[in-house]
């Protein structure tokens, strides 16, 4: 369990950064009228999913890099 917490702490910056960046970008895109590709038409949900996926990928990369 400690390994998961350590990986999460090391990878959190990537997930939060991608969420904030996509929140800004998708928000601007939605204001211009382009809602294609949004999950449920929601910028917040789509950005949350992007952030979570990036967090998970970074955790996997960190874990693989640490075990080699």
Describe the SSE topology:
Layout: H1 2-31, H2 43-67
Helix pairs in contact: 1-2
Distance between the termini: 20 Å
Shape: elongated
How many DSSP helices? Answer: 2
- Sketch the topology as an H/E string, one letter per element: HH
Helicity level, as a percent range? Answer: over 70%
Please mark out the parts with pLDDT under 50 across 5 or more consecutive residues, or reply none.
Answer: none
The count of DSSP E runs of length 2 or more, i.e. the number of strands, is 0
Rg measurement, Å? 14 Å
Mean pLDDT rating: 91
Largest sheet: none
Structural class: mainly alpha
How much β-strand is present in the residues? under 5%
Describe, in plain words, how this protein is organized in 3D:
The chain has two helices and no strands. The protein has helices at 2-31, 43-67. It is an all-alpha fold and 68 residues long. Helix 1 runs antiparallel to helix 2 (43-67). The two termini are 20 Å apart. The mean pLDDT is 91. The chain has a domain at 40-68. The chain crosses the membrane at residues 6-26, 38-64. It comes from Cognatishimia coralii. Keywords: Membrane, Transmembrane, Transmembrane helix.
């Amino acid at each position: 369990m400690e390994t998961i917490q350590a990986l999460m702490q090391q990878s959190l910056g990537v997930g939060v950064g991608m969420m904030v960046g996509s929140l800004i970008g998708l928000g601007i895109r939605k204001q211009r009228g382009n809602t294609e590709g949004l999950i449920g038409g929601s910028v917040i949900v789509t950005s949350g999913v992007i952030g979570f996926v990036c967090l998970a990928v970074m955790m996997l990369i960190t874990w693989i890099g640490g075990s080699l």
